[in-house]
Design brief:
globular, mainly alpha, two-stranded antiparallel sheet, Glycerol uptake facilitator protein, 2 strands
Length: about 375
């Protein structure tokens, strides 16, 4: 292999999908705030109805594993509806919009704008559906065709989600959107509606059956639990669940799916973008006439921009909202219950970081040796 002129050969089939995702991401960043908000409202509604269906279908099943499986199998109708029918779920945008930024097609501030707009619509949509199904129509509780076990299951799930530690909520959210955005990514790999249906179904059913944390689902589920009488405050909902879950969801969507597949596609970069001016990247292997491929310097800048957007978005949305809820309604939160104890902090965060660093260094050394052979 020639070390003086290395060529990044992308994994088969990825470049075309990445170009399509980037185009889709650009479209999202050009929507008005009103469009983002309405589409976010619609998406949250579909997920809210699907979550309610899963509770109604699974509440009467006594075997825990079978109950979770039943709930997981019926839930994907929500994600299928919004992907095929149209809707703006911010967790999907957490993959699509950053890819548009990575390819140099939009500015990173446009990525941040898109995430905030869709998140706002999702939140209001989830809250409205919680009122609609709990207070307005009494589907779960109240007079009419309801069942006591439905309310019990709703209380149990919402209390559990609000009682997780920061690290538990973060990592469950991370794993969740790794699967959810895999479903969204797979939908780009098929042009047939039936194919999209099944490709979305299985990763989505997996996350819901396992019991992972999805912020948009929780925007409906926990407020519904509060309205149904669960002993949870709004500050607890925002601070203990939405804050870490949003951070974990955003990290998985932008890094594991967006950055991971963009890198594996050869880091495609639009020729006429600001990042590619001067012909700096013209020597790289190219699979599309309008694209060149970035180098390691551009990769480092992209990683920094991606992480910056994730942190800024999380601080602006659930972060500010949770602090407002506490300061004006409930007083300061108990931070000690969120931050892991000193003796457990290393095992929760330190060990994974060391393992990741070890394999990163090992891979880098192996790559250098390979290029010299």
């Amino acid at each position: 292999m020639n070390s003086e002129n290395p060529k990044f050969v992308p994994y088969g089939g990825l470049p075309d999908t990445i170009h399509e995702i980037a185009t889709y991401g650009v479209t999202k960043t050009r929507l008005s705030f009103g469009q983002l908000f309405v589409l976010g409202f619609i998406a949250a509604s579909y997920l809210s109805f699907a979550t309610t269906l899963s509770i109604v279908a699974g509440a009467g099943v006594e075997t825990p594993g079978i109950q979770k499986l039943v709930m997981g199998l019926v839930f994907p109708i929500g994600l299928i509806s919004l992907v095929i029918g149209g809707g703006e779920m911010w967790t999907g945008t957490a993959m699509n919009a950053p890819v548009a930024g990575m390819t140099g097609r939009v500015a990173w501030k446009a990525v941040l704008y898109t995430l905030i707009g869709s998140y706002a619509g999702n939140f209001v949509g989830g809250f409205f559906c919680a009122w609609l199904l709990i207070k307005g129509s009494n589907v779960i509780v109240g007079p009419g065709y309801t069942n006591e076990v439905w309310a019990q299951l709703l209380h149990k799930i919402s209390l559990m989600k609000s009682s997780l530690t920061f690290s538990q909520a973060f990592w469950r959210a991370f794993a969740c959107v790794w699967l959810v955005d895999l479903a969204v990514y797979l939908s780009f790999r098929s042009k047939e509606t039936v194919g999209k249906f099944f490709l979305i179904w299985f990763p989505t059913a997996t996350f819901f059956t396992i019991g992972l944390e999805h912020s948009v689902v929780n925007m409906f589920l926990i407020p519904a639990g509060i309205m149904a009488g669960a002993e949870i405050t709004w500050g607890q909902f925002l601070f203990y669940n939405q804050l870490p879950v949003t951070l974990g969801n955003a990290a998985a969507g932008a890094v594991c799916l967006g950055l991971g597949y963009w890198y594996s596609a050869g880091m495609p970069l639009l020729k006429n973008s600001d990042a590619a001016k001067g012909g700096k990247y013209e020597d790289y292997f190219n699979t599309h006439p309008d694209y060149v491929h970035g180098d390691n310097g551009y990769l480092m800048k992209t990683i920094g921009a991606t992480l910056g957007v994730i942190v800024m978005f999380t601080l602006l949305c659930p972060g500010v909202g949770s602090l407002i809820a506490y300061f004006f309604l409930e007083g300061l939160p108990d931070v000690k219950s969120v931050v892991p104890a000193a003796e457990g902090g290393f095992s929760i965060f330190g060990e994974p970081i060391i393992v990741i660093a070890y394999f990163t260094v090992l891979s880098a050394v192996a790559a250098r040796i390979w290029r010299r052979t």
